[in-house]
Amino acid sequence: MNCGILNTLGRFDPITGVNWNRMYHFDETVIAPFAQQHIDASQEEIQASFQQLLIDQIEQKLDHNIWGITTGQRIAYQLQLMAHQADLVLDLHTGPISSKHLYCPEYIKASASYFDIPHTIFIPNDFDGAMDEATFCPWWSLQQAYQDLGRNFVMGEGAFAKESFTVELGSQEQIDLDVAHQDALGILSYLQYKGVISGNHYTPQKMTRYGCYLKDYKALYSPMGGMVDYLAEFGKPLPAGEPLARILRMDNYCVDESANGDGSGSPLHNICLDRQVLPILHFASASVNQGTELYKVFQDYFEL
Amino acid sequence: MNCGILNTLGRFDPITGVNWNRMYHFDETVIAPFAQQHIDASQEEIQASFQQLLIDQIEQKLDHNIWGITTGQRIAYQLQLMAHQADLVLDLHTGPISSKHLYCPEYIKASASYFDIPHTIFIPNDFDGAMDEATFCPWWSLQQAYQDLGRNFVMGEGAFAKESFTVELGSQEQIDLDVAHQDALGILSYLQYKGVISGNHYTPQKMTRYGCYLKDYKALYSPMGGMVDYLAEFGKPLPAGEPLARILRMDNYCVDESANGDGSGSPLHNICLDRQVLPILHFASASVNQGTELYKVFQDYFEL
Amino acid sequence: MNCGILNTLGRFDPITGVNWNRMYHFDETVIAPFAQQHIDASQEEIQASFQQLLIDQIEQKLDHNIWGITTGQRIAYQLQLMAHQADLVLDLHTGPISSKHLYCPEYIKASASYFDIPHTIFIPNDFDGAMDEATFCPWWSLQQAYQDLGRNFVMGEGAFAKESFTVELGSQEQIDLDVAHQDALGILSYLQYKGVISGNHYTPQKMTRYGCYLKDYKALYSPMGGMVDYLAEFGKPLPAGEPLARILRMDNYCVDESANGDGSGSPLHNICLDRQVLPILHFASASVNQGTELYKVFQDYFEL
Amino acid sequence: MNCGILNTLGRFDPITGVNWNRMYHFDETVIAPFAQQHIDASQEEIQASFQQLLIDQIEQKLDHNIWGITTGQRIAYQLQLMAHQADLVLDLHTGPISSKHLYCPEYIKASASYFDIPHTIFIPNDFDGAMDEATFCPWWSLQQAYQDLGRNFVMGEGAFAKESFTVELGSQEQIDLDVAHQDALGILSYLQYKGVISGNHYTPQKMTRYGCYLKDYKALYSPMGGMVDYLAEFGKPLPAGEPLARILRMDNYCVDESANGDGSGSPLHNICLDRQVLPILHFASASVNQGTELYKVFQDYFEL
After folding, report:
1. pTM for the complete prediction?
2. What is the CATH number of domain A20-207?
């Protein structure tokens, strides 16, 4: 008898429920004033001063204040302090049961093809608390603030040569050192492309790379509780109407199905969508409640 | 040997970390258009039509959509559907280890004194996802939208006679039927005041009632991990400089204290504030991490 | 960042830690007296009276007594009440991450080959609290008690035609309806062999079936904490000296390895055994502590 | 809304469910052979040789063996290695919500009155895996083995001057440094009595001290699930028929009670016993299942 599994997702504090990955800081109100005050500054001056402003803000947050800060905020701010001092930031993650995928800012789409990762989510200049956003959103916003004032910079170049990615390396409960080696080669390929390492030893793998915009990266929530047979394979386009999963309702096995003609009492339920999608990850347990996040998928995706 | 306690706070989904109490719906964008379209409507018409609009929005959310909704959203929307059909909404809660306290909208301060609850937090017209806010914020916003159009209504009267409270009834792991009886009398006192029940059987208890604004209801996070001796009593003003708690660092008992003169290696640390506060609740466990929410307190409080 | 996973094994009560599968009842002291009192009874009488004795004992346990019984005991006794009324008992289980295996009493080895399960553990007449043991141990003990008195019965025949198995159907977080169908065919094959269903529709699959004795079904505990790359495949004989797993110590990656010549500071550790084994299951997480059960394996196994 | 609390009891490994406090080692089979081999040895020789035997056994267990040992075993054996080298062993514990109580071997009843603890459980020479038993059971068994061979020693004196207690210092989530100071004085009083510290500075407090035998230290399991109002006070004799607790069944509040005359549908249930008891501890949460351990109490207790 296996009565139940409590599998907490590691990205949440098991006591307070806060998502460790959404506690980073970004204060948009400082952007426009900075641009106005440094309207004529050189790129070097802009880079140095703005970076210092970001660091000062975090140090202010971390500094002892009378009320203290939460455990998660302290961790996040300490990581962010390191991140603000770098030009390239890679936040390495794993997911529950997951294919490899990459979160990449929209302004540096070309970089995505240097990793050996087949699925990329392009994210806009909206801040939702994540590390990658906390790193590039201030600079992107600054570039736009200058643009509003009539001074044009190119994101990803000069003072604005900031790149930040969340690199999702697959399932969190699977360690495979051969796969890890391959992951490392992909990261080296990106770093060589950016000139962090010299030479031309690393070539990104040839593969079909799919991308979609963050707004099209969709979660599918289970319409009912039950046991789940996950059917859809990661990274393989699933036609409209094909089942992503079958949900098994043990409690309906003994029910006289003729009783309700609508099929709601059936022991097996196919979960389908009315459009083609690309499955990226699914829940870690075969036992779900009504409303559990079953799958995350790309819709309206495209080849890079 | 008792190596550890995992005491998850009940208001969070233990799997996904979402706070069950912050999933309610409020769409501010519908307010101004409604006021414009119903600028000359009678109060009866306003009440009926706006209530229907709120209900329709929730039903739309609950309606089967292709991607589904999360477990917590489904529960919240079903509760909200009931709440939108009522004039008075009481959301009964308990906390970890807690005194009794009341969340009350600022526009109906007088109502707070009819409950037998000594501490009241007055909340503004900001929506942060809670049930009480989800109930009164739409009406308050509507009243303001009419005001912007030159038509003045009084919040808490006529079509706008909506009241909503979160009633915090103390510690969640303590059931005392005598106290529960007293709590019930306080609620009856409020309901009699509002005319829900007739007669004059119920009189609120004489007690000193303290209030503060939501912005002054502060959490104090632990500056270090350790074992906590909670010293400050709930509901008793604590002078500036008096310790709220003592934190015991077992790991420092064997340290030669002369080694570092700043006291950081001391086994005992008093946690004080530089201002007078009124302690309201504290954490449920004696074992805390750096950053754990130790106490919640009123600052800048006043007598009602 | 994924800071931690709490994956409780479902066979334990998450509050009290009791193993749901080890709460069944067997009181050896009633066996010898029963045999003496029924020394000349017919097999029909023995079967009926002894079964009634077992049922009476459980009902006595379940009956309201002044101190009550634990949650787990109540569940176990209710299941056992059902089991004592059957001749054949199949207790269907799943494990963390696991191959299919069968627990089979030593006296009915032939039955093991009718299931489509490649690995069988033969269990002696020792009671350790499990459902299968609770079902056959009383009868086996009774047969031995009669033997001591000079009356010989054959276990598995006549009054003693009791068979009981724990059928481990693989990994608990994997639902695959095609595999489930295959599992069902194997169970039907066994039931047909025992005459529960008639005909000859079901033939056990041809496969190499391995067995070992319970004393040779060994757990391997991790010699250190770390991240685990599970290398050994289930059901495939692993030669002595070949690694079952590699343990990755991230904390040792930055250490100067020349510092300690014994390799204890190495980031990679192969976990090997000095004898050939047959891997059956492994732990569900890639993150382990020193002392976590890494693998369970057959040693001194043989073909059936 | 507070939907649920998962409060794991700290004495269980949250992953594997093993009770950290029941993993100590005692091998009774070595006792009789030792007594025979050392039948004429001096008390000094007996003490030194037997202690070395106990230590050797633990070191053998801890020594690297091919299969390893579990996390809990490693911790237990390391503690036991320390304990075997001492004459007096105090295992300091706390419980869920609990009065202070003491586990004391039957052969040294007099020692119990030197602690400032009002409730003592006297334990016999049976080994159930606990630290205190693991410390004194070998010596008690050895004394008995010598007695069987005609040589009489007094437990608690000479080579057998071994004392071991589990000191339960109250509720695990309550830290009170004033109470801790009082606890320390009681322990010093015992140590002074045993001559570990000299002088006569410490006098045990005058108090009514109650004792009972381990067999009379009883757990009461809840006959139903519900919300619990714990009524019985710790350390205060509760007459037969007086309620220990009231269980509140919210689900029965709306039921027409006239429907079933037996009261089973009543919203309130008093939990009583048919004999006088002394309540010692109760469960930590107000929410219980059928079968949750509600209270532990002394029956057939007496004054020391």
Report:
1. 0.89
2. 3.40.630.10
